[in-house]
Amino acid sequence: MNIFALEIWDDEGAKCTFYTVKQDGEESNETDLFFEKYDAMAEYKEANQELLSFVIYAIGETHGAVDALFNRDENEVKGLPVQGKRKVQNITYHFPNFPLRLYALKITNNIVVLFNGGIKNGPTNQKSRLHLEWRAACEFAKRIDEAIRDSFIIVDEKNRKLTNYDGSDEIIL
Question: pTM score, two decimals?
Answer without folding.
Answer: 0.95
